[in-house]
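Before drawing any conclusions, I looked closely at one protein, both as residues and as discrete backbone shape codes, quoted below without any editing:
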Amino acid sequence: MRVMITGVASPIARLVAERLAGEGHEVIGVDRRGWEGAPAGVEMHAADIRKRAAEELFRKRRPDAVIHMATVTHLVAATEERYRINLGGTRAVFQHADEYGVEHVIFVGRPTYYGAGADQALYHHEDDPPMAVSTFPELADLVAADLYACQSLWRFPKLATTVLRLVYSLGPTGHGTLSSFLKGRYVPTVLGFDPLFQFMHELDVADAICAALHQRVRGVYNVAGPQPLPLSVIVRETGRRNLPLPEAAFQLMRGRFGLPRLPPGAVQHIKHPVVVDDAVFRKATGWRNQADEVRCLADFVREFPPPV
């Protein structure tokens, strides 16, 4: 199978590319950052998915499947640029896929789509609405990209579309929002709140994406790993120190004094859980996570020990 992976320079996408190349698939990597030292089985192209060069790749290479991972968060891009990358890039991927005969597109999203709040259900299902647009405005571009991908299920009926909403990743690369939040000596929390956090090992993330590709499942799926844990337990088990703050102080101190840089809307996710039910994905693919919560935390701590 000829598989194009957008955003292939990110750590998780590299794991997916290496796994597929190892299985004998022809992998085409697209990322404007490039990938120095890419394995021999990955054909790299330093290109912006929104530009003409990327469209030419679709036209000339005619991939059978595309795994779209070229989205960014508030941690790496300003608002306007995020919209151009996340929504504009996602639109370009699906339009090119439809025009140039791609059979299957996987959009890799996040369950933060559902939003966090005191009145939200504990477990979210795939048909729950995207409340993040009101509770966490900085996620609006990612919500828009997710919705566009969902619309592609009927907009491009000949195209098998898979939308995956994967929980936070945790592991030795230290990639992702949760890992960034845990890297400092102190982890700020909101006084009086201890939400459940759902995460899965980076290798399981790659494995789940590959399972969706091999099974060619169509539709929207939540993907989770081991049982969720309270934030206080995660902080303790990673050897960090919990710093409970009144909400007003939390807002004033975020990004200062060595504390994580977070947007204003993130406070809702430090107060309330976003937990998903992934039973539909497990039934559709037969996939099971291999790493439990203990291994996820241990592998992260091994590479990122508590700062002295």
Summary: The radius of gyration is 19 Å. The chain has one domain: 2-174+199-226+275-290.
